[in-house]
Structures are given as C-alpha cells and as structure tokens.
Write a structure and sequence with these properties.
The chain is of the alpha+beta class. The chain is built from 3 helices and 5 strands.
Length: 127
C-alpha cells in the first residue's frame, strides 16, 4: 500500500489550488468577465457585456510596464494577488504566473477578450 503523509496531501492540495486559480484567471482573460460577473450595476439588457481592460485594471495591486530602450511600450505585468498566493499576469509573454511558498505554476493564454494589453498601452502613453 502507498500511504501519503498529511503534509504531502496538504502540499498536493495547495498545488492544485494554485493551478486552479491560474486556470480561472486564464479563462477570464480569454473569455472576458461580464458586468454581472463583477457585480457592476447594469440593465438587464447589458448584464452579459464584457468589461473593459480599464475596468479589469481597477483591481490590480501593482503594474510593471515593460518598455524598450526608447520607452516604447512592449507589455506589462499585473499583480492580481499577493501574499498567498502571489499571481502576476504578463501581457508580453501572455502568461499567468503564480507562486505559493515553494510551488510555482505558469499558465499561458491566447486571447485578451477585455483588451487589457491595449488598455495598458494607452495608460503608458498618457504618462
């Protein structure tokens, strides 16, 4: 028989929780969050409208801009969770990276349904 210690079981659960959180963020990025999803006041007709990148960024804990030597915008890193776990979205690499103690997980996304990267590009241009 193969027995796992209580510590090993807890570590496995935490790893799965981190992966699930990242997968959820990737799904939100690729499909968008609706006005209803985020609890914004809406009419019944627009409750399924996707929020803008600017709306999404209102809850960002930190934003790090990635620019080239000429100051041209390339992408950004957005901190969406901190402490336990810490999670960053990287628009240049199109990744979501999470850390929880010694565990690390990276998930990739293909679509940016809320146009977060374009919103960040615009914000960078306003500086």
């Amino acid at each position: 028989m193969n027995y796992q210690s209580a510590t090993q079981i807890k570590e496995d659960q935490e790893k799965n929780m981190l992966k699930d959180q990242l997968d959820s963020i990737v799904s939100n990025l690729e499909h968008g969050l609706t006005l209803q999803d985020v609890g914004m006041e809406t009419d019944i007709s627009d409750k399924d409208d996707i929020i803008s990148g600017f709306d999404y960024l209102q809850d960002a804990l930190d934003i790090r801009y990635i620019v080239d030597g000429n100051g041209e915008y390339l992408g950004a890193q957005i901190c969406v969770a901190f402490g336990g776990p810490t999670i960053w979205i990287d628009t240049l690499k199109q990744t979501v990276e999470g850390h929880w103690w010694q565990d690390r997980h990276i998930a990739h996304y293909q679509e940016d349904a809320m146009e977060i990267d374009e919103s960040l590009r615009e914000l960078w241009g306003c500086r």
